[in-house]
């Protein structure tokens, strides 16, 4: 740089122009050096590093390249050059050094953040990331790093010790608590969610209050991202999962079976004792033949032992069409390919109501997939609705418009017949 000053003086220029020209030339030279250094670091060094990482067998190397960790670090090279040559401008040396150091700190913060984000992406390649996500913790570390970075940059620009600024943070704690309220609540919630294993990425959760019913895509410091089954996205605050209740269907998914719990309401007026003709018909049904033979033997032995007079159907024991139908449903489910036979399976009566006698089917499918579950459930009830009349039973249904019109037509016909007879 002294050579530049001497060269300009030897050119016998106006002494007033020597100093400004020297500064301009020095700036241009330093700018050229920074451009060359930046070109070398990005076009040569980073390409060599990229080729080495690409050819290596390390899986997470590609993630670091995608996050451009080394490229962001290369921005520090021009700043280091400017800082090293700040003494060239004696008048502005201190100011230039402060700017260069501030820029180096900012680049360092960006580098650390991208390195942490790359670490999070690497961690997500392991199965444990679904059980113990760390994205919330990394976001907390990023906030701390940003806070420290702001303090360091500010202290460097004003020329004061960072400890002086740190001592003033105590007075701003109330403001910080207010500003970072959601982040702090999210941090506490994230720790509780992870330690208690309440929710994982990939879980199916249901939270009607927030319109969430779908799979968890992401768990961050402040929010939990849920993709609903209609492909919409719902963002739920993390701390809400601690303060409010929600349904996690993970237990059902891991059990290997999904519950069917649905009732079939039978019209009580159609319930009756089985006649001999009905029993002969039921014996020919595959799922009922063994049951009918066994029950008939039990009933005959009981009635004979107790000398029951069966001329009156009220006396003694007898089969009913509702009981036979219940046994049929149970045997039908036990032989159904879509029902998990290793889990609870039963057909029971619930309390009678104004809607008839409910027969509840309680069973589990052998698949937890939604489409398969709905198909199996629909197939079962399609069959039961169709087969119920074969047992002399009617499925309860409130009178519809067609029923009312039929009643009106019947009453009109009866009135017409009576009028003609008169």
Write the layout of secondary structure elements.
Blueprint: H1 2-10, H2 15-55, H3 61-66, H4 69-74, H5 76-84, H6 93-123, H7 128-131, H8 135-158, H9 162-169, H10 173-179, H11 181-195, E1 204-207, E2 212-219, E3 223-228, E4 233-237, H12 240-243, E5 247-248, H13 250-255, E6 258-266, H14 276-283, H15 289-305, H16 321-334, E7 346-349, E8 357-365, H17 370-387, H18 401-421
Antiparallel strand pairs: 1-2, 1-5, 2-3, 3-4, 6-8, 7-8
Helix pairs in contact: 1-2, 2-5, 5-6, 6-8, 8-9
Provide a descriptive summary of the structure in words.
The protein is an alpha+beta fold. It folds into 3 domains: 2-125, no CATH class; 128-141 and 157-248, SH3 type barrels (Roll), CATH 2.30.30; 258-401, Alpha-Beta Plaits, CATH 3.30.70. The chain contains 18 helices and 8 strands. The protein has helices at residues 2-10, 15-55, 61-66, 69-74, 76-84, 93-123, 128-131, 135-158, 162-169, 173-179, 181-195, 240-243, 250-255, 276-283, 289-305, 321-334, 370-387, 401-421, and strands spanning 204-207, 212-219, 223-228, 233-237, 247-248, 258-266, 346-349, 357-365. The strands form 2 sheets. It has a 5-stranded antiparallel β-sheet. The longest helix has 41 residues, at 15-55. It is rod-shaped and about 140 Å long. The termini are far apart. The model has no long low-confidence stretch (mean pLDDT 80). The chain crosses the membrane at residues 20-41, 101-119, 140-158, 164-180. This is Mechanosensing system component YbdG. One of its GO terms (molecular function) is mechanosensitive monoatomic ion channel activity. Keywords: Cell inner membrane, Cell membrane, Membrane, Stress response, Transmembrane, Transmembrane helix. InterPro entries: LSM_dom_sf (IPR010920), MscS_beta-dom_sf (IPR023408), MscS_channel_2nd (IPR006685), YbdG (IPR030192).
């Amino acid at each position: 740089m002294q050579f530049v000053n001497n060269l300009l003086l030897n050119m016998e220029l106006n002494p007033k122009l020597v100093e400004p020209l020297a500064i301009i030339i020095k700036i241009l030279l330093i700018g050229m050096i920074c451009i060359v250094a930046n070109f070398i670091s990005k076009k040569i060094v980073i390409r060599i590093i990229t080729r080495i990482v690409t050819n290596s067998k390390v899986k997470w190397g590609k993630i670091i390249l995608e996050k451009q960790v080394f490229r962001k670090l290369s921005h520090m090279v021009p700043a280091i050059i400017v800082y090293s040559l700040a003494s060239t401008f004696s008048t502005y040396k201190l100011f230039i050094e402060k700017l260069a150091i501030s820029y180096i700190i900012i680049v360092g913060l960006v580098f650390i953040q991208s390195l942490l984000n790359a670490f999070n992406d690497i961690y997500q390649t392991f199965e444990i990331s679904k059980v113990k996500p760390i994205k919330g913790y990394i976001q907390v570390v990023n906030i701390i790093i940003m806070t420290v970075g702001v303090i360091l940059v500010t202290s460097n620009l004003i020329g004061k010790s960072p400890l002086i600024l740190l001592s003033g943070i105590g007075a701003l704690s109330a403001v910080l608590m207010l500003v970072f309220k959601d982040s702090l609540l999210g941090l506490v919630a994230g720790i509780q969610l992870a330690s208690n294993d309440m929710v994982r990425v990939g879980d199916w959760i249901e939270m009607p209050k927030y319109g969430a019913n779908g799979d968890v895509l992401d768990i961050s410091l402040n929010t939990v991202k849920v993709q609903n089954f209609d492909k919409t996205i719902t963002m739920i605050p993390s701390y809400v999962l601690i303060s409010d209740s929600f349904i996690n269907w993970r237990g059902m998914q891991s059990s290997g079976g999904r519950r069917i719990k649905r009732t079939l309401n039978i019209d009580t007026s159609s319930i009756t004792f089985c006649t001999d003709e009905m029993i002969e018909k039921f014996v020919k049904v595959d799922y009922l033949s063994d049951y009918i033979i066994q029950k008939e033997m039990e009933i005959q032995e009981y009635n004979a032992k107790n000398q029951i007079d069966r001329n009156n159907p009220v006396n003694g024991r007898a089969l009913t069409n509702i009981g036979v139908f219940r046994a049929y449903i149970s045997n039908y489910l036990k032989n159904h390919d879509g029902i998990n036979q290793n889990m609870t399976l039963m057909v029971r009566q619930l309390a009678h109501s104004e809607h008839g006698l409910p027969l509840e089917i309680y069973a589990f499918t052998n698949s937890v997939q939604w489409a398969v579950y709905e198909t199996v459930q629909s197939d079962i009830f399609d069959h039961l609705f169709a087969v119920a009349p074969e047992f002399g039973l009617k499925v309860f249904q409130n009178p519809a418009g067609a029923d009312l019109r039929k009643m009106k037509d019947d009453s009109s016909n009866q009135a017409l017949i009576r009028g003609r007879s008169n």
